[in-house]
From TrEMBL:
Belongs to the NusB family. One of its GO terms (molecular function) is RNA binding. One of its GO terms (cellular component) is cytosol. This is Transcription antitermination protein NusB. It comes from Hoyosella subflava (strain DSM 45089 / JCM 17490 / NBRC 109087 / DQS3-9A1) (Amycolicicoccus subflavus). Residues 13-140 form the NusB/RsmB/TIM44 domain. Residues 158-200 are annotated as: Disordered.
Amino acid sequence: MSNNRFKKFGARHKARRRSVDFLFEAEARSCKPTAVASERVALAAENDQMPPVAEYTHTVVRGVEQNKQRLDDVISTHLHEWTLERLPAVDRAILRVATWELLYATDVPSVVAVDEAVELAKELSTDDSPGFINGVLGQLVLVAPQLRAAEEQAAAAVAALDSDVGPENEDGAAAGDAEGTGSEGSQPGESGPGTSRADW
């Protein structure tokens, strides 16, 4: 079996394709992609002829849904003389999946994310789409390391803030507020202190 054929029918490729299907349907129905995925899970439970939803499909769909605005901003920055809204809906879905992988899926090499997106465009979209998507993602790959580093720093900052505002701090603040209430001379705020191609 050739590398191309393995890639096309590998589990991750099928999961990506299903993610694109769910994103496309969610946009057409004006609902959340995770809602579409949940519907398919329920259907698969009732009908053994329906394929189960792969875990990677859930991962991609959740990731795109949670970061959609960020993904759209990044994609739009690299669309020359086009807007995201003017693209075919399936191309938007493919670009969102690939861009999510470039920024957030640390286990997926950039070349795999791009090649998979081009393959999906060949299977699902117009004759012009594979070249167009390859061009957009080719630009994104150049800045992906910096963008990913920025995302990781932002996530670390949020985690640090969350750890600072723990139950103990919240209880302490509440106790300080209670002590300050009704005390003479108390002031607000004195109560103290986020190669080979594997089946990626």
